[in-house]
Design a protein that fits this description.
By secondary structure, the chain is an alpha+beta fold. Helix content is 60%, strand content 15%.
Amino acid sequence: MFNTAPEPIRIQSNFHQFYAAMGAAGTIMGIAVAGVLFMGGGAQELLALFAFLGSFWLLLILITGWNDRRKVRRERADAQSLFEGAGWSQWRWSPEGWKEEVAKRRSEYERTMRFQRFVPVIGAVASLIIGGCALLPVVIGGEQIEPRARVFIIVLAVFFTVLSFLLSVVGAGRERRKWQRRLERSEQAMAPWICFGPYGFYHEVDGHTSLRDLGDVRLTQKGRLLTFYTKHNLGRASSGSYLHPIPLPVPEAHVEDAPPLVRRYREERKLKG
């Protein structure tokens, strides 16, 4: 077993939902305040607005922040436990085998980058559609809409068009950097290891992958590909869920170790198989 944990420990859980809730709260509150001021509202209307919308978004932000913090702490503890005796099995790539894996990752990176070139165009088209939908009240209402309200709607349509385009460009840039960092770490490694535990596995290059919501695990391609399936809910409006695959190539030296590991996950996590 590896006695020391990598520094820093890389995990998947983050505060993205919390930051998204903060951004949504700021955007909606800003639009609402602008609407009240633009329509000639006074201090009383603004106070009522902050009392209603502000309290709702404050509660949502607090809940989201608490939930994200809980996930981060739990996954960090799961990852740390792998290096404190809770690990089940450890695999290591051979230098030759890892070179082949890096070549596959480089090919995957190049395919992703080719697609990323079209993301700004797709974002521009989506932004125009969003802006057009926001303008529908003006088009349908025509002269029946008060001139001041018409101007406000047009400003909102332009705002959301620009915002959606910028978000698509920023999101594409973050995705490119993520894939680039992953490839760079892969190329720097010589013979990386993988450590498995009851609630996740840690890859020296990729960091920790949580298996808290594990729904299934399978071996395919003659035992050369280990695929974990994690459960994800479709949303509060639906009681259904789907399984998200997490493929993990099996190093040549550990092909015989994979079936016992699959059986252990099935038995200890009580998976149907």
